[in-house]
Structure prediction request, 879 residues.
Amino acid sequence: MKAYRKGIEETISSHAVDSQKGLDAKQVNYNREKFGNNSFETKKKEPIWRKILISLNDVATIILLIAAVISIVSTYIEGTGHYFESLLIVGIVIINSILAIVQEGKAENSLAALQNLNRTQVKVMRDGETALIDADDVVLGDLLIIENGSAIAADARLIEAIELQAEESALTGESLPVEKDAHATFEPEAQVNLGERVTMVYRGTTIVNGHGKAVVTAVGMATEMGTIAGLLSKESKTVLTPLQRRLVQLGKNISWIAIAAAIVVMGLGISQGMDLKHIFLTAVSLAVAVVPETLPVIVTMTLALGVQKMARKHAIVRRLPAVETLGTTNVIASDKTGTLTQNRMTVRKVWHNEKNHLSLIADGLDDMAQDVLSLATISTNVSVKTVDGEQVYDGLPTEVALVRAMAAKKSRDDLLNMYPLIDQIPFNSTKKRMTTVHRNPSGGYIAITKGAFDVLLPMIQHGDKDKATAINTTFGREALRVLTIAQRTFTDMPENPTQAFYEQDMTLVGLVGIIDPPRVESAPAVEKARLAGVKTIMITGDHVETASAIAREINILQDGDQTITGSELAKLSDEALDQNIQNYSVYARVTPTDKIRIIKSWQRQDATIAMTGDGVNDAPALKAADVGISMGETGTDVARDASDIILTDDNFATIVDAISEGRGVYIKVRKTINFLLSANISEILVILIAMILGWGSPLLPVHLLFINLVSDGLPGFALSREPLLTNVMNEPPMAKNTSLFAHGLARQIAINASLFGIVTLAAIWIGQNVTLGGLTANANVSQTMAFVVLSLTSIFHVFNIRSNKSLFTVKYSANPSLVNMALLATLITLAVALIPLTQSLFGLTFISLGHWAIIIGLSLVPTIVIEFLKMIQPNLFKV
Ligand code: ATP
Prediction:
């Protein structure tokens, strides 16, 4: 029989699971052996040869390879035996793409490793204990503990469902939540669709209301989701971030420039009667060398490193583009509880309505406080365990505070034995209250409602409302969160009791004032954000007085800033909200739906807004925000799934750190563009100008490819490890869609490329015209000089772009791999030019010491000029 048709008892017995204690360790092992674990089969990896083919799949590279093969064949036919150059071309192109693949593979692996941090954990009952386990470790027969906001890890038959609603759109396409019922039955013949199987919860769906328990009836590929998992593993295309996409576009644009340059070079060569094969290879090599293919790889590495760093700082990136968006964020809308505050709630004060008495908990728990707290305590969902002799509380922090305060006199269990639980309507942030119903020791029933003061006040019939209002305001001003406790007793329980029935004719019991101090990091982080041009706003379900008191303490609310409540917000038109949005710093008593209005209004001002959220109802807002941030410690699975970033420490300060990382990524990408394009453009300049001046082709194809691979490639990869040498949080954020070349980058590249071009052309001219050390000037000498000068200037340039201050201000330890790579590239260049074998392979010749002195001098000129310009005009070289 299908799992959903089985009765509760039958489900429990057929899986031999204890409905209270869950499976024991032996059963877990046995079921895992027999039925497997809960993971999906993962997709196969691309084989390396395919990756190489894909990476070679670029028009200029293909033309170059074809040209090289043609030249090998024609050399064979001619019988001259000069294969080297063509073979070297093929070799360099292949090494280049292997290098890119290896680096990209590394970056992807580290990103994949981070995905593991992002695994869903599920609550199960095993051996009588609740345990949080990896979703993959769930086995058949496991007893799932389902809470509001849980993600369901496997298909399971409900054995208990309290107000349980599941959102099953991932499976059924239906976006409205489905009401679940553990006791429902089905007609034997009736066809029951997935969406109608209300006795079940399914893998891949989420709980949006209520709570319950369920026995796992299918795991892994046997789940309903598993059957469509085949489709899932196919849709594994990597999504590019906006920055990556812009760089791909940039690469394409440069390709056009490269192709145009190649055509001009060909034309010039032919008109000057050069050897056709040679000029063709030169032109295509130029095109290949000029396109910065390594740029996207370096960006992926930079992103991967940024993501790793963020993970170390407690921010787990779920969607890569968020890293970049963080860099442009100028508004952070943060929850109060747990993010700006410690979420260590402690009951401070209790007011007793009937006795009109205010108790300070620090003075001990008097009878009046006990009256109020005992009712508040039984109206919670807190479980208490003793671990190593200590009481461990599991539940909402507000509720834990109540139970813990009362525990000095009586435990929750003892109280519940006196007042057995009959029914409950759970808390949610929209209703801002909850009600539990108990058998009354003195006969009949008692319904206890606790919740926000302003929500309960209109519902309360008996009690001193004026006094209570005054107490509520005082508590709020002292930054206390206020819980209002009300009750109603009745003798008969109707057949179908409703929430309205429980919550009528209520009597005020008292008010509880709970303190939740701000985190020590919050005030400095708010200040740091402000200096960085990022406004922090507080969005909270709490009362406006409480919220303002905390906001003032951490400087979110300053002179001139305004507060607004959810009901005031409801009265504002979108236009009015837009006009004033910049002034509101605190939004109190808002519901999760209000968050969307706040986001949209900021977005209409062209702001980039990051928003935090932890509850089920926060999911739409997390999706609507430019960066949705969820909480790893206290958040629900639903919120985590909807978010771009998870804070593993729930701490506001982490968001500010992540913003600085995001900005850093952008700066590193700009540095990389500066490095690669300056050198590449100078290559075009050198070849074109030399040919226009009738100096012949000044560099061989292998020279261009070598510079691309070694002089640009080696230091370039190390740039992704470059630390942030400037304080990126001293300036306002960049506007969305700012050009990659904005803020003077294009000008810097133009200056650099011209300097490199001038010194290389000077080297060519000297090589062709000046007799030195007994060596007559000739084309070979000039090629050797041009090659070494271009290679060295390019390598030295990596030091120029690190900071807009002198290169000597940057220590070796800042990025040893960059210095080492530059050194290695220099050594390889010198080796190629000096060792007779490589000399002849690269078509170079032996040159005199005088030539070497000129080479070194010329190669240093750009760096010296740039150092000088930095001294007089540092803004020109802003990074
Ligand atoms: P945020 O995390 O967005 O800052 P919050 O956590 O302060 O918001 P909620 O948890 O939605 O906001 O709480 C709003 C109000 O609901 C509180 O001020 C309190 O009066 C009441 N409340 C909170 N928790 C409970 C609960 N467990 N039972 C009954 N009422 C509660």
Remarks:
- Residues 232-237 have pLDDT under 50 and may be disordered.
- Residues 804 and 877 are 5 Å apart (CA to CA).
- Residues 335-337, 396, 398-399, 427, 429, 432-434, 450-452, 481-483, 539-543 surround adenosine-5'-triphosphate (CB under 6 Å).
